[in-house]
Amino acid sequence: MDKVVATAGAAVADVPDGASLAVGGFGLSGVPNVLIEALHERGTGGLSVVSNNCGAMESGLAVLLAAGRIARVTGSYIGANKEFARQYLAGELEVEMIPQGTLAERLRAGGAGIPAFYTPAGVGTQVADGGLPWRYDGSGGVALASPPKEVREFDGTEYVLERGIRTDFALVRAARGDRHGNLVFAKSSRNFNPLAAMAGRVTIAEVEELVEPGGIDPDAVHLPGIFVQRVVALTAEQAARKPVERRTVST
């Protein structure tokens, strides 16, 4: 089945207001910027986003965030995104913070059909006990807090129950992909992209290099095409645009 869609705009045309999105990327690495920009151009809003972070340097999800298109974020890192922090503290944005490894496993579990799992991460903290501020009231008070989660003991160790994540759509970026949706990710862009792709009911991948079926060694495939419904081939210019979050030079 040829899953290639002509443009990014056509690929995201049926993403409605209020949709939930799993979005790949780690920092600025492996972020599906072209698909995100296509959503921005469509004016899609009220989105619930699941992603490690919410963009930075006016790139990635920061584009949608600054435009007020995101209603809720499930992630593990706010970092240096001042607008993210401002919206959260002002009560404009609902935020569920999750330990990074737990977030990764919740996405993987959702994609694998596992409804929930137990993990020791977060036991004895507000992650398990509840009370984390999901939304502030704009005056320093908490308008909505996280509920407590089930904690159970196995072999003398306590574990907290975490639910798998499934989203309406997933947006990911791959270094290479074929027309059947088989994907290969480059280096650190592999951190969250395969997991986000698994979690989406409809997964859209932008690929830097599109090859014909058979052009990727089966042993080299990081994500099989069964998880991908649409593929968008980037132009050379789009593929080359890779902003650097922090530049470090030697003295």
From TrEMBL:
KW Acetylation (keyword) present: no
UniProt-listed Pfam families: CoA_trans (PF01144)
Domain of life: Bacteria
An example Gene Ontology molecular-function term: transferase activity
Keywords: Transferase
Keyword field contains Ion transport: no
Coiled coil: none
NCBIfam families associated with the record: pcaI_scoA_fam (TIGR02429)
UniProt family annotation: Belongs to the 3-oxoacid CoA-transferase subunit A family.
Name of the featured protein: CoA transferase subunit A
